[in-house]
Structures are given as structure tokens and as C-alpha cells.
User: Fold this.
Amino acid sequence: MGAVLELAERFWRGEVRGPDLVRATGAVEEIAPGVLFVHAFANVTALRTDAGLVLVDTGNYRARDKTFAAVRGWDGAPLAAAVYTHGHVDHACGLPPFLEEARTRSWPRPRIVGHRDVARRFDRYRATAPWNGLINARQFSIAPSWPTAYDYPDTTYADTHRLEIGGVALELTHARGETDDHTWLWWPARRMLFTGDLFFWVAPNAGNPQKVQRYAAEWAAALRAMAARGAELLVPGHGVPVVGAGRVRQVLEDTAEWLETLERETVARMNAGATLEQILAEVRPPAHLADRPYLQPVYDEPEFVVRNVWRLYGGWWDGVPAHLKPAPEATLGREVAALAGGVGALVARATALAASGDLALASHLADWAVAAAPDDRAAHAARAAIYEARAEASAALMTRGIFAAVARESAEKAGGR
Assistant:
């Protein structure tokens, strides 16, 4: 058993927790005969066929040379085809070295296969590249960066597609989940399933507060359909494989139940006339799944999923009348500061609330203080400290990233680092 499959056992036993579940090791391993697994930030899998290699996902634009070298260190056969499980840039931006290789060696250009909506995603990414760079910088605490060149699929499909290359037959099925352009692959002859980001060892990314709509119910349906295949090996979009038919079925059905519960309970309360605030206070994932190592909220959070379900069925308004057409934040901040006896009093109260452990309420006061006095260094210093504490207390990467970005912003305005 190699390093990847050994790590898979540790994942299953719950010995690996937190961010390490989605942290790449860089390991390159043949996890089954003729199947190379590259454990990158977004995994890349290469399949040997009689007509050349097939890639399931291609990796990200930052590490594509490393991905290319890893595959070529295993097999030098021409790349016959690449399948995008979806159009996220960490999965669908690794082809340029392979395409250049085919051109310089006069090999046929590899087929690029994906759902028909991948092209629409690439078009949107090109139109909003600066925005995507900014939100990813907040989410991952990195410098803003976003690609503007994409290799569009030349073979697309709507619902299902059978891809046959060199004696290998792969069944592709479209699903809406984390994205609207998702593909999961089933290799019947080898009882192997490729899930893309429909499963990757953390609570489903169905609520990302900075990204476009997610689809919890359809995601759960796709997981149920995958579970019915009886796969013996699951290759995820992030993390490590799941080995064994019983384990594969369990992770897929548990994740489906997790999503179905949040969707069902949210919609039931919406139908009963509950406000979003009431729903957020009441809806939780199934308690009996709380200890599952693959359902920990280390990337997304259940309450964000609830918000996305609300947005899907109910729009962006949260039901609070004043929030429909609110006063500007600066106006609100000045009014609250005046009521408190000045910005200094507001900052003092925010600091006291933070010291007592009420970081959520302290954040409101700190935001109002800097909105009322955007050049006040003391207000920014307090805000930086409050949001740094919130970031440190947050298990989910998205939450931590956003709070950390706010802390950095105010720290700079306070004259710090």
C-alpha cells in the first residue's frame, strides 16, 4: 500500500482532521493498475487506454507544469482526452503543457470533454476575472490572481454521455451541486467512480457566501445515484480516494442525508412563514452524522447552506423590513455612534463585548465605528483585533478567510501590519 492509500485509511479512521483533509501532499501514486492519482490541490487522475491517456480533471493553472511532469513521469503516451468534472479553475486549467506537447510532436490534439455549461462558466470567469481574483484572495488569504485564458471543451453533452477511448468506456452524468456544470464519471468495468467536487472529504460546499448559487437538493440526488452504482473505489476532486464498496456507499449516502436535511428543514420553515433569522437558529445537520470525518465543516458551514437554500427559493431579501432598502452603512454608523456618545464610546463597548466573548455583537459595533469614522485608527485597531479573534475561532476556511481579510484591512488602516 502506497502513501496515498495509507493516507486514505487514516482519513477513514478520523486521524486526519481540519484543513489537512483538503491539503495536498503532492503524492503521485498508481492507486489501481493503469490508474495514476496525483494528490494536488485539485486532484488529477490519469487512465491508461490502448489509444493513449485519459485525464479526469487537469489541475490548476498555478501547478500545471508539476502535474504535467507527474503524469509524464508515469507514462509518455499521447494524451487522448481530458474530462472536466466542472469548470472551476483548480480543476480545468492544467491542459496547456499537454496541448503544447501534442502540437510540437505532431500528435492529434486531445479531446476536451465537459458539460455544455462549462463554456458559459469560462465566459463568466473572463468577464469577472478581477472580481474572482478578489474573492479568492479573501477566501484563501492569498494575493489576487485569476486566469483569463481557458481551454474550452470541444465535446459537450447535456444529460449523459458515453466516452469510449482505447477500450475504456466511461459513463458521464451531469448534476447540479456545487456548480451547475458538474460531471461525475462511472467506469463500470473497474467499478470506479470519479465524483469531482460532489464529494471531497468535508461538509459539502453548498453555501459559499461569495460565490454563485449552489443546489443542495440536486446535489443530494446525484450522490444517491452514485451510491446506487456499487463502486469499489471513489476518486474525489480533493482529498484522497475512498476504498471499498461499503465505505463508498456510506460516504455518499451520509453526505446526501446531510444535504437533504438542511434543504428539507429550511423549506419546511419557509413554507410556514419563518424568517431567515428563525430558520438559521433552528436548522442543523443530522446529529448522528456529527462525528463523520468526511462531514466536518472545515471549508463551508451548515448555516451558509441554509442561506443558499433560502436564496434559491426566496431571493436575497432576508425578511427584515429595514434591510429591503437600508440606510447607508456610514449613515447608520454615525447614528449609532451618536446614540452611544461618540465613536470612542462605541469602540469601548465593542472591545468590552469582545472581551466577554460576544464577538458577533462586537463585530457589528466595530463595523459601525469604522463606517462612522473611516480614518479613526483606534476604531480600526479594535476592529482588527475583533476580527482576528473571530478568524482564529473559526473552523471553516471560508469564514476564517473573510474574517482574516477584514482584520488585515483594518490593521493596515490602524497603522499596523
In short: The CA atoms of residues 103 and 109 lie 7 Å apart. The mean pLDDT is 96.
